[in-house]
Amino acid sequence: MQLKTIRQSLFVGVSILSFAAIGCTEQRNFETVAPTPAATSQTNSVSDLAQATPSPTTEAPTRQPDVVYVPTPVPVVNEMLRLANVQANDVVYDLGSGDGRIVIAAAQKVGARGIGIDINPERIREANENAKKAGVTDRVEFRQQDLFQTDFSEATVVTLYLLPELNVKLRPKLLSELKPGTRIVSHEFDMGDWKPEQVVKVGERTVYYWVVPETPPANLKK
């Protein structure tokens, strides 16, 4: 009789332990269960919306800059503006604007409107601070954007200080988006087989000057 009682007790204990183990397994399975299709759709929709409508305060670069920032010396800036004959009615786009010195100088010297494009948020902040100090925030604007995804069709003057391969890569976009007669000035680097109209030396630096033609040659659009 005593042995039977012990066996019954052991059976009850094992049953309780088994039930507890089943409960734990079910709880772990519940915690790792995949979302239902409806939940997945809702999550993706929210994610897609967030990506499609980024916050205006977002300052993370869309990708790493293509070049290391090196400021253009002031004498070169002055020559670039002179060579392009920048006037008060011009809209100057500086591609890779850095600390903003070119468009700020254009606004200060002749009252031109300027747009600086740079992918680096640090450069955008620095340029905005410099514009405030120069008192030209009503004439200039700085945008954190990718050059290859930027619409600069309103420009009448484009300035750049990039790299030879980037100039060539950017060339088809410049020729397709810019209006005929738009002036382009590059510090230090040319645009491959697009022959410049003028080449000027500023000390050891070189400045190249082009004008967008009415009908660009087909080979320059590639």
- Write down the CATH class of the largest domain: Alpha Beta
Poorly predicted runs are 1-58
What is the typical, i.e. mean, pLDDT? 79
The largest pleated sheet is described as: 7 strands, mixed
Beta-strand percentage range: 15-25%
Do you know the CATH architecture of the largest domain?
3-Layer(aba) Sandwich
Number of helices: 6
Rg, Cα atoms, Å:
31 Å
Description:
With 222 residues, the chain is an alpha/beta fold. It folds into 2 domains: 2-46; 74-221, Vaccinia Virus protein VP39 (Rossmann fold), CATH 3.40.50.150. Helix content is 42%, strand content 17%. The protein has 6 helices and 7 strands. It has helices at residues 2-31, 37-52, 74-83, 101-110, 121-134, 164-177, and strands at 91-95, 113-118, 140-144, 157-160, 183-187, 198-202, 205-211. The protein has a 7-stranded mixed β-sheet with strand order 3-2-1-4-5-7-6, covered by helices on one side. The model is unreliable at 1-58 (pLDDT under 50).
Which key terms come to mind for this protein?
Rossmann fold, seven-stranded mixed β-sheet, globular, alpha/beta, single chain, 222 residues, 2 domains, 42% helix
Q: SSE layout and pairings?
A:
Layout: H1 2-31, H2 37-52, H3 74-83, E1 91-95, H4 101-110, E2 113-118, H5 121-134, E3 140-144, E4 157-160, H6 164-177, E5 183-187, E6 198-202, E7 205-211
Parallel strand pairs: 1-2, 1-4, 2-3, 4-5
Antiparallel strand pairs: 5-7, 6-7
Outline of the structure:
The protein has 222 residues and is an alpha/beta fold.
